[in-house]
Amino acid sequence: MEPQLGATSHGIAATPGKIDIRGVSLRYPGFGSGEGSNLALDNVSFGIGDGEFVAIIGPSGCGKSTLLRLVSGLFPATAGTIAVSGQVVTKVPPGIGFLFQSDALLPWKTAIENVAIGAMLAGKGQKEARARAHALLHEIGLGQAIDRYPSELSGGMRKRVALSRTMAYEPNVFLLDEPFSALDAQTRIHVGNRFLRVLERLGQTVMFVTHDIDEAIALADRVVVMTAAPGRIAAEFPINLARPRDYYQSRMVPGFRELQGQIWDVLRREMQGVLSREG
User: Fold this and answer.
1) Taking the mean position of all CA atoms in its chain, how far away is CA 177?
2) Cis peptide before 244, with omega less than 30 degrees from 0?
3) Residues 6+ apart with CB under 8 A from 251
4) What predicted TM-score, i.e. pTM, was given to this entire model?
5) Does some domain include residue 6?
6) Which of 16, 64, 74, 233 could cysteine-pair with 209, CB 3.0–4.6 Å?
7) How far apart are CA 184 and CA 128, in angstroms?
């Protein structure tokens, strides 16, 4: 039950599976003649297997969120290819559930109406979609808020509504950008465990961006650490913790802290590079 400690080296990519990222770079254009363009991602390659949960961690500005947007087809890479379910991404792929850092709720709809949208996009009728939304909101601790509008909810509550909407869609692939960042510590544990139960039941593929090393280890099958910008793959850490897992109790398993230290050593070196450039 101990994690398999140690990292695979940069450039070693997983066997092609649900998501296949090959030689992906992204350069934002500069102004005028093109001078001053910004290389955000540089030759990123790795795969995510069907049903695998991969957490992406790295210094701020390293391109973690940008990589999610490329996989989602929201805009194209400058170089390289991304495939989802064997199909090269040229637009938003079918069966993708994307939760942004902003909750993106519809302000004129109540919590239950916002969540029901996800179920209806999955093909459920209005009555079934509302029942699904009602159940999810109760399970995630928002039963008292189902008829409130987003403006009547706290930031953490809105984030939970957005997560429930994504879960209601039951996508084949979850792309999640720090979905628990607005939650307090106790709510984060509750929501994290609820999220784990859904994933372990449905077996979806997950690409999950976080700044929290402990969270990455507790949730993921593999942790990918990115370098400071331009983002590359610094290291990959397999996480061999038995499932089902507990979002909090998993941190007490022997070997967890050693693995945390190894990931932090890689991340610390990258952060030192950022700080030295800023200084």
Assistant:
1) 5
2) yes
3) 214, 217, 218
4) 0.86
5) no
6) 64
7) 31
Compute the distance between CA of residue 150 and CA of residue 243 in angstroms, rounded to an integer: 35
> Would 71 be classed as within a structural domain?
yes
For the domain that residue 196 is a member of, what is the CATH number?
3.40.50.300
Cα 103 to chain centroid distance, Å, stands at 14
- The string of DSSP letters for the chain reads -------BPTT--PPS-SEEEEEEEEEE--STTSTT-EEEEEEEEEEE-TT-EEEEE-STTSSHHHHHHHHTTSS--SEEEEEETTEE-SSPPTTEEEE-SS----TTS-HHHHHHHHHHHTT--HHHHHHHHHHHHHHTT-GGGTT--GGGS-HHHHHHHHHHHHHHH--SEEEEESTTTTS-HHHHHHHHHHHHHHHHHH--EEEEE-S-HHHHHHH-SEEEEEPSSSB-EEEEEE----SS--TTGGGGSTTHHHHHHHHHHHHHHHHHHHHHHH-
Within a domain: 31: no
The letter for the amino acid at 152 is E
Per-residue pLDDT of the chain (279 residues; tens, 9 = 90+): 343 433 333 333 334 479 999 999 999 876 544 455 689 999 999 999 999 999 999 998 899 999 999 999 998 999 999 999 999 999 988 888 888 877 889 999 999 999 999 999 888 999 999 999 999 999 888 999 999 999 999 888 998 899 899 989 888 899 999 988 878 888 889 888 888 888 888 788 999 999 999 999 999 999 999 999 899 999 999 999 888 899 999 999 999 999 999 999 999 988 876 555 555
Please calculate the CA angle 151-153-159 and round it to the nearest 5 degrees. 110
One-letter identity of residue 224: V
Domain-embedded: residue 157: yes
Domain that holds residue 164: 49-75+89-278
